[in-house]
Amino acid sequence: MTSATYSTEITMEPTMSAPTPEVVPGESLRIGAGRTRRFVGREHGAGVSYFYVDNEPGEGPGLHWHPYPETWVVIEGTARITIGDHTFEAGEGDTATVPTGVWHGFKNAGTGRLRVLCIHASDVIVQTWADQD
Fold it and tell me: What's the predicted TM-score (pTM) here?
């Protein structure tokens, strides 16, 4: 067995001083009267953003794309996911990732609630919708 040699040098030193941690109440992230929440990382010093989606059967976002990858974690229920010309189902505990610049969307394909964490690899959320009505 050989050991790997890395040429990257870490010059940062860890510290114990930090700004006061922020807990963002879920209610403050709620979009309108629905159950979905939106977290924009830049507003909270984070390098990622997310949607916490909580949908009834048949609900979900239509086709859209982002200039960065997005990763979904199904927390509860069954999602019918479309990524480009592929459609498949994902259930509780499953993870799927869509690459940068690919049309995608999902719907609740089950009979109960669908809860999905949609992680955006960006500190802001940028979306272009296929249906721009």
Answer: 0.85
